[in-house]
Amino acid sequence: MRIRVWLVMTLFLCSSLSYVSAGDPEKLEDVGAVFGGAHVNANESGNFSMAFSEMPAIVEDYTATWCENCVDVEHALNDVEETNNMQQYHFHRFIGESEDPLGSEEGDERWEDRYQMRLPPTVVFNGTIKQSGSVPASESLQTDYNENLANSLQIGVESSSLTYSIQANNTNPVVTWNLVIDSSTLPDNSSVKSMIWVVEKLAHFPEGSNGKEYYHDSVRMVVDLGSALSGTKEITLPDAFDGDDLEIHLIHEVVLPEPETPSIPGDGQDNVVDDDEDESSLSSIGMLPALAAIGLSALTKKKKHQ
Prior knowledge:
Layout: H1 2-22, E1 26-27, E2 34-41, E3 46-51, E4 57-63, H2 68-81, E5 86-92, H3 105-115, E6 122-125, E7 129-132, H4 141-149, E8 159-165, E9 174-180, E10 191-204, E11 214-226, E12 230-234, E13 246-255, H5 275-285, H6 288-305
Parallel strand pairs: 4-5
Antiparallel strand pairs: 1-7, 2-13, 3-8, 4-6, 6-7, 8-9, 9-12, 10-11, 10-13
Helix pairs in contact: 1-5, 1-6, 2-4
């Protein structure tokens, strides 16, 4: 039993370390697609309707103003945007952050809920493909990102529309949304959640230690609109970091059903483990931190000698 547990855990750890090192794109199976992109200027009332065929690929970039290799990632994203219909959204680290002023708590909470680890740089394409780090899986990040963008969504031919109304009595603005979608194009038993992402088009922050001064398309607030396909909601806007260039973006997210917990066959007797076997298993599991340290040390030494 001890050998089996140790072998399984070692193989799992080694494969995990290999993935982090390689930066291979990861297909996300437990979360649904992200789509949309209809947007208006927050300084004036307006409306925007968009057919699914016109929608840009939604590219979410988790970043920070102190993250130096995030700059390489964003340069690569800018390169591929020249030849692709895509919209970048930069989520800046916020929770536990003392150096980056451009993020939001709800943005971090959403990122953790969907994508777990908040490690910059991480890029997610259409909510379905995640690529972490700045080391390409192929000859360049540009090639990787172009391949990720080639995996287009199959969500039908319907439409998404947004209306944004500034109130005359200086109360909070109101958003109205309407999503027309063929449910047969969605995974079984799934639903669609809509959100408003408040985006600051350009922020000047030269104090960041990554060498950048200007930050584009920063998501300053996430407003959950729920699972209704249409509705109206009053929202409170955040202050722009500088300037007066906030935008209101309508984003949709496919919510997959919770996976069923598999039943355990038998009457329970098969699951009884004697004390010696249980102690051996726990001892083997306790070796994981040490194995992790050894693996990381090996990776570090390898990089130093390259």
